[in-house]
Amino acid sequence: MNRKTFSIVFQPEPEGGFTVTVPTIPGCISYGETFEEASANIREAILLCLEDMIARNEPLPSESKSPLLGSVELSLTDVHA
Question: Which of 17, 27, 21 lies closest to 8 in space, CA to CA?
Fold first, then answer.
C-alpha cells in the first residue's frame, strides 16, 4: 500500500473552530468546528487536492522533513505605523 504523510497546521479561530492548512499543498485548506471535525475535513480536502493534481498530471508533493513550529516575541513599541 502506498502511503504519504502530510503535516497539517491547526489555527484556532476567534469565533470558534479551527482552520487547517497543509504547508506542502498550497491552497489546501479546510475548517471544522471541533478539532476532530477539522481533522476529518482536512483529510478529505487533501484527498481532493491530490486527485486534482493527478488529473492534471502534476507531481504529488512530499515532505522531506517535518516543518518546525516556533514563535517570535516582538515589542509592539518597535512597530512603526
Answer: 21
